[in-house]
Amino acid sequence: MSERITRRRTLAALGATGIAGLAGCSGGNGDGTETDGDTMETDTEASEDMDGTTTDGSSGASGTVKIGVLQPISGDLQYYGQQALWGFSSGMAYKAGGEPQVSAETGTQTVTVGDVDYELLIRDTQFSADTAQSLATNLVTDEDVDMLFGLTSSGAATRVSQTVAKQAGVPLMIGPAASASVTSESEACGEQVFRASENTAMDARSGGRYVARESDVSRVYLFGADYSFGRAVVNNYEEVLTAEGVEIVGKRFVPQGYSEWEGLLDNAAEAGAEGIVGGFTVATLPALFTSYLNGDYDYTVFGGFATEITNNVVGGLLQNQLGEPLTQEKLDGAGIGPFTTRYHWNQYDNEINSAFVEGYVNAYGKVPDLFTSGTFTAASAIVQAVEESGSTEGADIASALRGMTVADTPKGADAYTFQEYNNQARSEMTVANVAPTADEWSDSWGAPIQPSDPVARISADETTIPADSDSMNCSL
């Protein structure tokens, strides 16, 4: 215990220097304003409501685990933080055998699993790296948390990893921040830094393999946002497509919010592209799709399925261009997709996912969205680590997490495994077509389009950056 206190005191002494010295310095996106996840590219007796796995304390663990939770739960992008928290809450509830109870509100909320109380100290990052760093420092030095969980912005995740978790030796479970660099670059990754949530490399490597192996596309033009998220999408698509024999006929990075798409789309056509990839967020995608749908292009648009926010915007564009009601026939002729998805509620058919979807809808009025499987799994993994180690100490939890295969996940039993070389969990990804939103989901999915049933699955062994890749600069 004295070692842990010493680390906290050391961070307290260094904290002010760290905040001043690193403000704004996190790979060009240090202000945390990027929305890097949203691309077309959240008692001990078992309850039958969630069919959860319970513990009766036989693991030997008892006491309290204090978890500092950092998510944006106010402002324009509060839905990102909400779904991340709701997924985490659902993972805890599943392990407890109950219903999700945690709300997306600041303060302290407690979930009990077996003989262990998980005390969640929830803080609002407001999607700012500076705010996230300050809050994380306070949680470690003043609240003496055992570990940290959260962060939606990759800039904030990198900052907190560098200046708080790694300095203090406090475990950090990142999620849903999605830039590949968080677990592939030495500056951000570390022995104490974990991520169950899927990332941009997984989007791209899955999508690239599908394009190369399952489509007739042999020439691709790559577009991406000019910051860590977009560059990770483009670089990983380029690596996989090239290895699979697909020719890259051009690539271009543009600022977030870029709107002059007609000329760039014409350039792709002139280069002979049969498909284009867009590594963008909701800030840029609507303008791209508007120009594409208004033009006369023979190539197909690929990428990743987004959250409800982007699906609502893009679905509205499709309704305007194709007419209402949207039908599968209209969508099939639009030249859009299929897209990869990290997770959506209808992509996995197993008992855990069925319980997850039912409990999540009942508790929050929404179906589980893009970020939620990763944060459900983060919570499930933390509980499993406590049970397996028999300890509530952060260092023991981290030790149990390394190399862990997580038993209970929405993608099925044992579907996520933390890689020992970078503490990133690998998991299966799916590919789906764009489909009109089914009547049964219209009340809990506020967008005109949704993913279809999966048309392909990409094995977990093929989704993440390999240890020997030139793109993997983390070796733990």
TrEMBL record:
Where is the stretch described as Disordered? 23-63
Composition-biased stretches (Acidic residues):
33-51
- Where the record annotates domain Leucine-binding protein, the positions are 64-435
The record's Gene3D superfamilies line, in alphabetical order, gives: 3.40.50.2300
Task: Give the organism's phylogenetic lineage.
Answer: Archaea, Methanobacteriati, Methanobacteriota, Stenosarchaea group, Halobacteria
Compositional bias segments (type: Low complexity)? 52-63
InterPro entries of this UniProt entry? Answer: BCAA_transport (IPR051010), Leu-bd (IPR028081), Peripla_BP_I (IPR028082)
This chain belongs to the protein called ABC transporter substrate-binding protein
Note the SUPFAM superfamilies from the entry: Periplasmic binding protein-like I (SSF53822)
Q: Which domain of life is it from?
A: Archaea
Q: Which key words tag this protein in UniProt?
A: Signal
